């Protein structure tokens, strides 16, 4: 039975289409995996300085931990020069004893001591615990971020969802963009209204007034909960970056605070940086071996290859901590300058109202102040600033326009507008 040529061509086309659909499904799975990987870079409920602290610094420290652990637990972290009468088992025992117990650094110009009474400063105590201290540093950089996300979860607003939806509007169709912006505006309006204080009383009004100018009185009902919490988290990031210099100073016991200055001084003088006394590669080890009733003292010279990595790692960590601390300081001061002071919040809002041609009459100017202080308040403007940090100011302008129109349609605003028109007619 012969098959019509058109039927054969149709089958071929269907087979090709099936292969194309299979390739498309594979491509979709690959893109999905890339999207999942992209989410690992962190959420969008903070700025890039925060991510520099809790994400990028943590990744760097974990990479250093892997490098040191690989050399420490896979290779030979210490190798000692043993006496000739030592057998292979004795050499292995000596290496293990000198690794577990601390070694001592003695300069080659000095004679090695014949007893155990060495000064405490010459004892090398840290090399066994370097992976642990690096992991501890990574955990300290992550703690403020974890604390921020735990506390904002009870604030009644999903910052990550708002900023993510706002940032994704740059890649969608205009109709979808408008719907997304309206959805964000409705969500923010519900959050703002739910966080409002509906009780009355002189003490409540007093606390409301104090909360506008002072962070001592703060809470979800006062409109400054997120701002005060964020300033506290910023301060934690800054304190962590500075405090880790002192933590490493106690851990290494070698005046680590000035380590970077010494490195720069050596480089400025053009001196060779062959070996640092803080991370000596050749040390001495003292141990005793008991044989029946006799106790034999041994002094061996050991090489610590792991310190070749530790030296470079901790030089980088010193400069990195100073770099992160400096940026965190300036970032904290900028946020304090822009969010704590009332005039800067008003100026930020008026700028976008002027762009949208919504700041003309005297009534608009008065209502803009109420729109800022009574409706959005500090937390609302903070969310808008966070959108601007992670998306762009064009989107912030559209959000403020939609929020302004939403605010104008509220009954209280319409009533105030009607009274203003009646007064002007009189």
Automatic annotation (TrEMBL):
Q: Its GO biological process terms?
A: monoatomic ion transmembrane transport
Query: Where located?
Result: Cell membrane
Q: Which GO terms describe its cellular component?
A: gap junction; plasma membrane
Coiled-coil regions, chain positions:
none
- InterPro entries associated with the record: Innexin (IPR000990)
Q: Which Pfam families match?
A: Innexin
The protein's name? Innexin
Q: What is its main location?
A: membrane
Q: Which stretches are transmembrane?
A: 52-69, 126-151, 227-247, 313-341
The protein's job, in short, is: Structural component of the gap junctions.
Identify the coding gene.
Panx1
Q: Which UniProt keywords apply?
A: Cell membrane, Ion channel, Ion transport, Membrane, Transmembrane, Transmembrane helix, Transport
Record bears the keyword Zinc: no
- Topology versus the membrane: Multi-pass membrane protein
Family affiliation: Belongs to the pannexin family.
């Amino acid at each position: 039975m012969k098959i019509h040529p058109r039927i054969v061509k149709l089958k071929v086309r269907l087979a090709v289409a099936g292969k194309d659909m299979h390739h498309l499904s594979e491509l979709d799975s690959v893109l999905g995996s890339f999207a999942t990987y992209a989410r690992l870079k962190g959420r969008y409920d903070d700025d890039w300085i925060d991510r520099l602290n809790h994400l990028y610094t943590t990744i760097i420290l974990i990479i250093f931990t892997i490098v040191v652990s690989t050399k420490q637990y896979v290779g030979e972290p210490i190798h000692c020069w043993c006496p000739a009468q030592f057998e292979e088992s004795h050499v292995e025992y000596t290496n293990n004893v000198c690794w577990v117990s601390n070694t001592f650094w003695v300069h080659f110009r000095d004679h090695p001591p014949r007893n155990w009474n060495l000064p405490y400063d010459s004892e090398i105590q840290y090399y066994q615990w370097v992976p642990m201290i690096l992991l501890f540093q990574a955990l300290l950089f992550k703690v403020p971020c974890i604390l921020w996300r735990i506390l904002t979860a009870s604030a009644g607003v999903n910052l990550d969802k708002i900023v993510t939806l706002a940032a994704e509007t740059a890649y969608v169709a205009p109709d979808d963009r408008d719907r997304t912006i309206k959805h964000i505006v409705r969500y923010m309006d519900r959050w703002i209204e739910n966080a409002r204080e509906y009780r009355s009383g002189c003490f409540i009004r007093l606390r409301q007034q104090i909360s506008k100018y002072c962070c001592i009185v703060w809470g979800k009902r006062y409109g400054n909960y997120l701002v005060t919490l964020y300033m506290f988290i910023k301060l934690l990031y800054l304190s962590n970056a500075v405090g880790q210099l002192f933590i490493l100073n106690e851990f290494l016991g070698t005046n680590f605070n000035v380590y970077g200055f010494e490195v720069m001084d050596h480089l400025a003088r053009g001196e060779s940086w062959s070996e640092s006394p803080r991370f000596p590669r050749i040390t001495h080890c003292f141990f005793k071996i008991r044989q029946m009733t006799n106790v034999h003292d041994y002094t061996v010279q050991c090489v610590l290859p792991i310190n070749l990595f530790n030296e470079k790692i901790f030089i980088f960590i010193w400069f990195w901590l100073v770099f992160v601390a400096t940026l965190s300081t300036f970032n904290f001061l900028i946020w304090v300058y822009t969010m704590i002071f009332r005039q800067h919040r008003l100026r930020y809002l008026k700028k976008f109202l002027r762009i949208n041609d919504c700041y003309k009459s005297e009534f608009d100017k008065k209502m803009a102040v109420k729109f800022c202080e009574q409706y959005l308040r500090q937390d609302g403007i903070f969310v808008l600033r966070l959108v601007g940090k992670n998306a762009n100011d064009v989107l912030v302008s559209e959000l403020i326009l939609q929020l302004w129109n939403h605010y104008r349609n509220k009954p209280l605003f319409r009533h105030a507008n009607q009274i203003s028109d009646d007064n002007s007619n009189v």
